[in-house]
Amino acid sequence: AQGMLRTYRLAALLDSGALVEAEAEAEALLDELKDPKVRPLALDTVAGIYLATGRIRALDELIAEMGNSEGALRWGVVFRRSQIAAMEGRADDAESGFEECVRGLAEHSGTEGAQAAAWAELGGVLLLTQRLNEALVAFEKSGGLWAQSGRRAGHFLVEAERACAILASGGSYVPSALDQPIAFCVDRGLLLLEARLRLARGLCRFHA
Known about the structure:
The chain has eleven helices and no strands. 42% of the residues are buried. It is mainly α.
């Protein structure tokens, strides 16, 4: 139970933008956590931290260990490798990997949040490669799945991405629709998400 609580704390630190603290606690957790039921989830959470801090070599080592995961968690390997591909500009590899994730995760119940994250990442790749209509579809699928999972932060993040995709396609998005998501972030100290939402709202105001 303690290992799971520490893993949830890491996720909260990542969401709040406390990356230095998250990274320090992540290394301690991996050194100490041996529970085979909890370690795969901890590995994936730490992978998210390493991705955010640019520790790609360390992330590669985590992904190698994550390859031992079973069930839905094994798709975390594909997801993280696809994120690295996107960071390195290998759009085709990233796209195929995220598509593989959404298909694989759909076969496992209770994975709405993970599916939502994969659809959001796929939408990001499609947006960067100027396939705007496909990107919008991916963001809408992601938003629906985030809503099913009850993860409001994820839902708000993909809504910011969807707003930017609408603008890129020549459409308009009402800036005030992002006011409540921003207030949510302020109340909970979600600094990274708040910044992303404020940027999206600013772009919407500029194009209004």
